[in-house]
Write a structure and sequence with these properties.
By secondary structure, this protein is mostly beta strands. The protein has five helices and 20 strands. About 2% of the residues have low confidence.
C-alpha cells in the first residue's frame, strides 16, 4: 500500500482522509522559512506564558516593551552603542513614540548608550480619552542614569524641554484625566551644546533650555534621572501627587522647578534621594506649591 491507499479515520466529526492528502494538508499549513524570517514572522509564532488562558503570538509578547533600536538603522544603533554621537536619532525616537501611542500605549526602552538629540522628545496625551484611560500613554525607560544618556544638541536658544511629558491637550476637563500611574526614568539628559560650564566654582557660561519637563500630569514616579547643563534642569508645571526619587541635578541655574499655572490646587509631591549640585540660583524652587522631603 502507498500513502494514498491508507485511510485515516479520526475520532469525532472530522471526515476520514487518506494519509497522503492529510500530509499534504498539514504541509500547506506550515510556515515556510522565508515567512518566519520576514518582518511579520513573529506573528506566526505562538507564545504560551505558563498558566495563561490565552495563547498570544510572539509578536504580541514582544510589543509589551518596545525597544527604540527597532526604529533605528544599524548605523544609528552602532553610533549609540559606541557613544560617538555622529548620527542624530531624534526622528527615530519620535517615530517610536507615535507608533506606540497609535497601538494603545506602552513602554519605550532605551538600551545603554548615548543618543544624539536635536528635537524635543514630546510625549503627549490624547484629549479624547477618558479618565484613567491607559491607552496611548508612552513611558520612557532607560537602562539606568549612568548607562542611557540623551545628549542634547538642540540649537543655542533651545525652547521647550529635551524630554517633555505634556498632557495639557485635554484642556479644561480637569487634571484627573491626565493620570500617569507608573514610573519613568533610568536615563540622564545632558546639554551637549551650549551647556553650563563651571570652572573653580565660577559659572563661565550658563546653559539654555530645559532638560526634563512634565506639564499637567497627575501621579507618577520619576526615578533614577540625572540632568546636567541646562538653565532649568527639571520642571514640573501643574503636576499633582507625583514622586521624585534618586534624581541628580547639576550645573544649571535652577535644579528643580515646580509651579502651578492654570490648575488651582497646590503641587503636592514627595522627594527622596535627590542631590542638587552647582545650581547657581536654586537647587529646588517651588512657587505656590508644597512638597515633602
Amino acid at each position: 500500500y502507498n500513502a494514498s491507499q491508507i485511510i485515516f479515520t479520526p475520532v469525532g466529526s472530522i471526515s476520514a482522509i487518506n494519509v497522503q492528502l492529510g500530509m499534504a494538508e498539514l504541509d500547506s499549513e506550515k510556515a515556510s522559512l522565508s515567512q518566519l524570517i520576514a518582518n511579520t514572522g513573529s506573528s506566526l509564532i505562538g507564545h504560551f506564558g505558563g498558566g495563561a488562558t490565552v495563547i498570544r503570538t510572539a509578536q504580541s509578547k514582544l510589543r509589551d516593551v518596545v525597544c527604540v533600536f527597532d526604529y533605528m538603522t544599524q548605523a544609528q544603533i552602532n553610533d549609540v552603542k559606541a557613544g560617538t554621537l555622529l548620527l542624530d536619532v531624534s526622528l527615530a525616537i519620535l517615530n517610536a513614540i507615535a507608533d506606540i501611542q497609535a497601538n494603545g500605549g506602552g513602554i519605550l526602552y532605551f538600551p545603554p548608550g548615548k543618543y544624539r538629540i536635536s528635537q524635543n522628545l514630546n510625549v503627549n496625551w490624547n484629549a479624547s480619552l477618558e479618565r484613567f484611560e491607559p491607552a496611548g500613554k508612552v513611558v520612557l525607560r532607560g537602562a539606568g542614569s549612568s548607562m542611557t544618556a540623551f545628549m542634547d544638541y538642540r540649537t543655542s536658544v533651545a525652547t521647550g524641554a529635551c524630554v517633555n511629558y505634556d498632557f495639557s491637550s485635554s484642556g479644561e476637563a480637569g487634571i484627573d484625566s491626565h493620570i500617569l500611574s507608573t514610573w519613568t526614568g533610568g536615563f540622564s539628559i545632558i546639554r551637549a551644546l551650549n551647556g553650563t560650564v563651571v570652572v573653580n566654582g565660577e559659572y563661565t557660561s550658563m546653559g539654555t533650555g530645559t532638560g526634563f519637563k512634565a506639564n499637567f500630569v497627575w501621579g507618577g514616579v520619576y526615578s533614577d534621572i540625572a540632568v546636567s547643563g541646562f538653565s532649568t534642569n527639571l520642571s514640573f508645571i501643574d503636576c499633582v501627587n507625583f514622586s521624585i526619587d534618586k534624581v541628580f541635578t547639576t550645573k544649571c541655574n535652577i535644579g528643580l522647578y515646580m509651579s502651578k499655572n492654570t490648575y488651582s490646587p497646590a503641587i503636592a509631591t514627595s522627594i527622596t534621594n535627590m542631590t542638587a549640585s552647582q545650581c547657581k540660583s536654586w537647587g529646588v524652587k517651588s512657587i505656590n506649591g508644597s512638597f515633602e522631603i
